[in-house]
Write the C-alpha cells for this entry.
Amino acid sequence: MEKTDPEFVGDGDSCPFCNYFNTPMALDTCEHFYGFVWDGQFDASRKLTNLEDLWKNSIEYIEDKNIHKSLISNKSLNDFEKKITRYTNSDSLFTDLLTNALDANSGEGWSTDGMLSGSGYNVYIAEAQKIDKAESFLKDLLNQKLVGKFNG
Ligand SMILES: [Zn+2]
C-alpha cells in the first residue's frame, strides 16, 4: 500500500466536523480522525490505544466483580460515566463505546474495486477531552477509587 499506489490515492471520506478529506491509507488525516472501519473491522488510531486498553481491562474487572448492573444503576455516576459504563461489557464493541459515549461520527465512507476490494468509513471524534475523561474514569474504576460508589 504505497502512498503512490493509484488504488489507494483519494480513498477516504470527509470529516463531519472540519470537512477535511481524510485518506487513512496515505496517513493524511485531520485532528478528529480516530481510525477507520474496513469490512467490519475497526482499525483504531494510536490516539485510542490507552483508552482501548483501559476499556478491555475494565470489562474484565467489571465481569470478574459482577458489578455491571449495579454500576449502571448507580446514582453517584454522572450521565457521561453511566454511558461509558453501559458500553463496558463483553457484549459491547469498542466502536459502540466511541459512538454512544464519546459521540463519534462516521464519514460517508468509500469502497474500492479489484484485488483488495472492500468498503469502509472513517471514525471521527470532535472533542478529544471526552477521551481523556473516559480514560480517567476507567482508570479510577480499575484503581477501585470508585469502590464506595459500587455500594451506594
Ligand atoms: Zn476534522
